[in-house]
Each structure stands twice: as C-alpha cells, then as structure tokens.
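USER:
Working in pairs, take the chain set out below, taking as long as you need, and write a paragraph about the fold.
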Amino acid sequence: MQKPVILHIETATEVCSVALSQGDMLIALKEENRGYSHAEKLITFIQTVVQESSLTMNDLHAVCLSSGPGSYTGLRIGASTAKGLCYTLNIPLISISTLESIVLGIKPNWKAKNTLFCPMIDAKRMEVYTALITQENEFLLPIQAMIIDEKSFSNYLLEHPIIFCGNGAEKCKPIFENNKHAKFDFTPLSAKNQILYALDKYKKKQFEDVAYFEPFYLKEYIPGKSTVKGLY
C-alpha cells in the first residue's frame, strides 16, 4: 500500500508552519516565528515544501489543518487555504485541535505516567485558551478560555506534575513556578507535530466535511474600534 503524502498547515498562532509527510516520516518543513505573517507566507511555504520533496500538488493524498483555538485571522487564512486545496485536488481534509498539537510536540520530552499537560494559547492579558490532557490523550478539562490566577489547576497540582506549554505558558510562569509540580516547556508549535495524528485519521478515514468545516474559534470575534475618522 502506498504511503499517503499529507500536507500539514499550522497558522493558529504567531507561527506560520507547513510540513509535508509521507507515511510517518517528515520529508519537508518550512516555518517562521516572526509574528503573524500567514497571509504573505503560507502559499509560498506550501510551494516550497512540495518542490523540495520533488513532488507536485497532485501527489497529495490529504491536507491536515490545525483547527484552533487561536488567532481568528490566522485560523481563517489556514482554513480557507486548506479547503481550497482540498476542493481543487479532490482530497480529504483532516483537522487537529491546536492545543492537542502543542502537546504532541512536547510529549516525547515528558514520559512519566502521572504527568499532565496544560497547553496554553495566549488570549491577551492573563487569559489563555487551554485544556488539561493526560499522557493517554484524554481531556481531564475540556478546551476553554480561562483567566489564570493562583487558584488555577490547584487541585491537580497537588497530585500531578503539570507541563505548562504553548505561547501562553510563559506569561503564566510567575504564577506557578514556585510549585514543585509545575514544569514548563516552551518548544515552539510546528506543523510537524501533526504527522502521526493525521496518518492515524487518514487510515481510519476520519475526514472533515470540506463544505461545512469551520475553525474552532472558541470565542466570537469582536473587531476593534475603527480609528479612521468618519467610520465609527
């Protein structure tokens, strides 16, 4: 059986990352962590990884997208690009929670069975998009928006090491760093985190409906007040 070639797109945070895999192997990666440059970089990155692999777009078997929560604009750009490719090439769309992708990227660094993972995506001030995930990928706390304070996760920290990770973890570090069970991993988010997850979903044919798929924004987008005179 031919090993599927899957394109992986990550635009949920400030990271713009594109990976290409064949089976369970990473064959090309292009990414940048210099602010929200998805609109300018994403298509170029996709073209780059395909060309570096000596493949064409017609060789793709599926597209995997980090579906949120995260940046409203970044998620929109990623979703519209992924859906456009799937429509054009007539291939399936696979999605993965951005929080789960963060955990998959750091899990090899933390193998103790009692360990919990707390991925955090910055949502301004002391709010984060977060969840609490076990080593077995079970959600002890569902994905939610949370304002972090000294009481956050206190019951779990009594009994479990918790690995705080993602781009929202650094601002929360001063709150938790004196707790002996609090650990931190600032490994950047990457599209390559999706590879094994996407392969498993592809084999099981667990695909999204391309026509109706929408990113998981978690919170409703509220545009800022216009600063242009006469428009507000």
Q: What stands out?
A: The helical segments are 38-52, 72-89, 98-106, 154-157, 169-176, 195-204.
